[in-house]
């Protein structure tokens, strides 16, 4: 659900989210939340547009949720990054002017970085072949972008299918591959603040960290500096490969990454089941003091809840404060909530990203 875009109302909308988080966490004697705001404009680093044709002329279009018949036609998108807005007009004009680029084009996806790198994916309702490459390469060079073509079952990559983001956290630069089609945090400025908060909440520990749902290593990289060793887990193959590349690119050598679902991690750590993917990894050699979780909107499942209750500290990043509150009802029996934060990843919506630190009672 979204609210009207009005930078003049941003502070009031953020305050409403703060009050909502306070209300949800009140049963757990939560301290005052730390609030991390967003730039009021040009904060979103990725955007996806359908193309809507009127008299054969394409326009960028978005739709209200659940309504695909009444388009909202756009020439600019003020919540999107400056780089996306700079590219929207020239890219569409080039596709209108060249039938190879424009024929049966139905969707355009933009992915950008804080430093201005851009990757654009053009999606077609027709097969793509090598005839697409020459005009696409000329357009990519003219606009200084990475350009990818997609059609059913086909993907044409001219150079590479990723761009590199640089995030500054606690005085250090971290470099991340942002892969086309993979998950990335959409609000880079708030992501930096979120990483900084997580690093501060983690403190410095001579023991080890267990991380579930590590994705492409967004949190893993900076958190690796605060623990002796890290065991990070992720199920999605593409995210695992991206995380491995990011660890290598940043020279991080104290992280062991395994491809397991959270319930499989629980089975492995409790000795219920052995996994071939853990061969050669000495789980008993880890000395975990802290568990870090960044689960999907459904929150932690019952088995994972039982697992995390076994650690001295729980660092929990949530994309759904309602399921966070439900999980805290259980975690509150063994841990106390000592820090909480609100990260405004999605201004002008009711969506809230939050974080809590819990310590054993």
From TrEMBL:
S-adenosyl-L-methionine binds at residues 185, 213, 218, 234, 294. GO terms for biological process: tRNA methylation. GO terms for molecular function: rRNA binding; tRNA (uracil(54)-C5)-methyltransferase activity, S-adenosyl methionine-dependent; tRNA binding. The keyword Lipoprotein does not apply. It catalyses: uridine(54) in tRNA + S-adenosyl-L-methionine = 5-methyluridine(54) in tRNA + S-adenosyl-L-homocysteine + H(+); uridine(341) in tmRNA + S-adenosyl-L-methionine = 5-methyluridine(341) in tmRNA + S-adenosyl-L-homocysteine + H(+). Keywords: Methyltransferase, S-adenosyl-L-methionine, Transferase, tRNA processing. InterPro entries: MeTrfase_TrmA_AS, MeTrfase_TrmA_CS, SAM-dependent_MTases_sf, TrmA_MeTrfase, U5_MeTrfase_fam. GO terms for cellular component: cytosol. Its EC number is 2.1.1.35. The keyword Aminoacyl-tRNA synthetase does not apply. The active site is at 319 (nucleophile), 319, 353 (proton acceptor). Dual-specificity methyltransferase that catalyzes the formation of 5-methyluridine at position 54 (m5U54) in all tRNAs, and that of position 341 (m5U341) in tmRNA (transfer-mRNA). PANTHER family: TRNA/TMRNA (URACIL-C(5))-METHYLTRANSFERASE (PTHR47790), TRNA_TMRNA (URACIL-C(5))-METHYLTRANSFERASE (PTHR47790:SF2). This is tRNA/tmRNA (uracil-C(5))-methyltransferase. The lineage of its organism: Bacteria, Pseudomonadati, Pseudomonadota, Gammaproteobacteria, Pseudomonadales. The gene is trmA.
């Amino acid at each position: 659900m979204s609210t009207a875009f009005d930078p003049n109302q941003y502070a009031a909308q953020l305050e409403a989210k703060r009050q909502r988080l306070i209300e949800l966490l009140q049963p757990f004697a939560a301290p005052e939340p730390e609030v991390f705001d967003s730039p009021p404009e040009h904060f979103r680093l990725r955007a996806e547009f359908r193309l809507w044709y009127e008299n054969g002329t394409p326009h960028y279009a978005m739709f209200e949720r659940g309504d695909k018949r009444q388009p909202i036609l756009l020439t600019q998108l003020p919540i999107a990054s400056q780089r996306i807005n700079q590219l929207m007009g020239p890219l569409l004009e080039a596709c209108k002017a060249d039938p190879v680029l424009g024929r049966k084009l139905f969707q355009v996806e933009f992915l950008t970085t804080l430093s201005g790198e851009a990757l654009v994916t053009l999606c077609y309702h027709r097969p793509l072949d090598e005839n697409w490459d020459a005009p696409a390469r000329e357009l990519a060079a003219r606009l200084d972008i990475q350009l990818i073509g997609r059609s059913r079952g086909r993907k044409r990559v001219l150079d590479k299918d990723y761009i590199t983001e640089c995030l500054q956290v606690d005085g250090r630069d971290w470099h991340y591959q942002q892969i086309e089609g993979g998950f990335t945090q959409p609000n880079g400025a708030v992501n930096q603040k979120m990483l900084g908060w997580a690093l501060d909440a983690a403190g410095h520990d001579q023991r080890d960290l267990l991380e579930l749902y590590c994705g492409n290593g967004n949190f893993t990289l900076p958190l690796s500096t605060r623990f002796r060793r890290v065991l990070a887990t992720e199920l999605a193959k593409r995210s695992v490969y991206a995380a491995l590349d990011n660890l290598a690119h940043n020279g991080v050598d104290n992280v062991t990454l395994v491809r397991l679902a959270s319930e499989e991690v629980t089975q492995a750590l409790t000795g219920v089941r052995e996994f071939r993917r853990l061969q050669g990894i000495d789980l008993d050699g880890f000395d975990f003091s802290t568990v870090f979780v960044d689960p999907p909107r459904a929150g932690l499942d019952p088995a994972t809840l039982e697992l995390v209750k076994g650690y001295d500290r729980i660092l929990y990043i949530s994309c759904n404060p309602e399921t966070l509150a439900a999980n805290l009802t259980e975690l509150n029996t063994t841990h106390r909530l000592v820090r909480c934060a609100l990260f405004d990843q999605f201004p002008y919506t009711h969506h809230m990203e939050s974080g809590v630190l819990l310590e054993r009672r």
